[in-house]
Amino acid sequence: MSDFFVRVEGLTYRYTNEEVLKNISFSVEKGKVLSILGPNGSGKSTLLKIIVGILRDYSGSVKILDKEVKEYSIKHLAMIASYIPQEFSPVFDLKNFTIVSFGRNPHLSLFRGLNKRDYEIIEASMKSTEVYEFRERRCSTLSGGEKQRVIIAKSLAQEGQLLLLDEFTTHLDPGHSQKLLDLTLNLIKTNNLTAIMVAHDVNQAIKVSSEIMFLKDGKIISKGHPEEVITEELLEKVYGVKSKIIKNPINGKPLVIFH
Ligand SMILES: Nc1ncnc2c1ncn2[C@@H]1O[C@H](COP(=O)(O)OP(=O)(O)OP(=O)(O)O)[C@@H](O)[C@H]1O
């Protein structure tokens, strides 16, 4: 078995006639955090949806743990990968405990409902994301940031080893965004998870990522360690705007200031 958790080779995807992803190849090692950046419409969310098995009519190869995504059952894939969307709005206004308990569904069967261990996992997930106090409340009564923490608790209860995060802090204020990001990174480290994050905040991506990958018009423009790939030329090529890169006085990493 290879050291790669996710391996994409020659991936092409089209919703209609036009190709949204054009023959892209990359891989993510176990325990690493890859951030995917790029302009609106460059194919970032589409890529995540393919990796998590929502879009299966792709051509090329997308493997998780050396097995083609298309060949996994939805249930088996859900045991491995947790998808956290930009915004979480459940169809029914359920209690938060119930929502988090759905994370255990891939592990249940017709003959096995929630057992003591499942309840322990749900409780621990809610405690580590600091939403246990909201367990009896309905989801609609929570703030945006609290809701996102509930969906992360559900993902943790799922016990997947791969987190796929789609701009999951976009709607949060800087305080909540920072706190949720720190919490998620801590969980990734503690549980040795692998993560792929779609992001727009370049500086946040520099701070949290093992690697950054830039997509534009469905193609990979650059991929590598943040310090290596982030240049003023590259940012202008990707986003069409000028920037200045200075040294971040807090962590010594590159800090991008857009003109
Ligand atoms: N269901 C769909 N049917 C047809 N076209 C779609 C569909 N979903 C996305 N697209 C198109 O595919 C392209 C890539 O969309 P995608 O959502 O992957 O981009 P993105 O990089 O995540 O964008 P953003 O930064 O705006 O979230 C866009 O041109 C979009 O209009």
From TrEMBL:
UniProt-listed Pfam families: ABC_tran (PF00005)
Keyword Translocase set for record: yes
Key word Nucleotide-binding present: yes
Keywords for the protein's UniProt record, in alphabetical order: ATP-binding, Nucleotide-binding, Translocase, Transport
Protein name: ABC transporter related
Domain ABC transporter: residue ranges: 6-242
Entry's Gene Ontology molecular function annotations: ATP binding; ATP hydrolysis activity
Phylogenetic classification of the source organism: Bacteria, Thermotogati, Thermotogota, Thermotogae, Kosmotogales
Classification via CDD domains: ABC_Iron-Siderophores_B12_Hemin (cd03214)
Superkingdom classification of source: Bacteria
